[in-house]
Design goal:
By secondary structure, this protein is an all-alpha fold. The protein is built from 10 helices and no strands. InterPro entries: HD_domain.
Length: 188
């Protein structure tokens, strides 16, 4: 149970983040994580924590990239939001943090792939409306496309969640579609 409100979280994110692209990424991962609470968590009772983990996972990256995610993790821990803090501290496997809960695994599985699905939408005239998992999987094989997306992290995330890649991609597409206009995923 989280006591942090979305408004408080958003206010912090906005004060620490100047990059509109990073703000959009944070909102995109929030949207997907709210849906993930129903699919991978225990449902409605997890929605706020999952959503806030998605919203805040990169909150300190814009201002303090060399310290990421230590600042946001410390901020959350100071407020007693240990579950969200731990999930954020674990959203990159190379940090060596344990994956103890479904929220930890879901954030790992949703972060990079949500950004990648967004990148796929940007190169399609019809955006997300006709995007299919097979197209995303094909782009994942092209190392030069969205080169900043760590394919190993994508693979580790779906493996830890115990889901098939195509199924998880479809889940992310379905979660993002209702928010396509807000997130700039509607195409040209």
């Amino acid at each position: 149970m989280t006591t942090l409100t979305r408004d408080e979280a958003y206010e912090l994110l906005r004060s620490w983040t100047d990059s509109e692209a990073l703000m959009t990424h944070a909102r995109s991962v929030e949207v997907v994580m709210r849906a993930a609470a129903h699919r991978y968590g225990s449902g409605e009772g997890d929605v706020e924590a999952y959503g806030l983990a998605g919203l805040l996972h990169d909150a300190d990256y814009d201002r303090w990239p060399e310290e990421h995610p230590a600042r946001i993790v410390a901020w959350l821990n100071e407020r007693g939001e240990t579950t969200i803090a731990h999930a954020i501290s674990a959203h990159y496997t190379k940090w060596g943090v344990s994956y103890d809960t479904q929220i930890d695994r879901a954030l790992l599985a949703c972060d990079e792939l949500t950004g990648f699905v967004g990148a796929c939408c940007f190169v399609r005239p019809e955006g997300i409306s006709t995007l299919e998992p097979k197209s995303v999987k094909k782009k994942l094989k092209q190392k030069s496309f969205a080169a900043g997306v760590d394919r190993d992290e994508v693979a580790a995330g779906v493996e830890m969640l115990g889901v098939e890649l195509g199924e998880h991609i479809q889940f992310i597409i379905d979660a993002l579609k209702p928010h396509a206009e807000e997130l700039g995923l509607s195409g040209t």
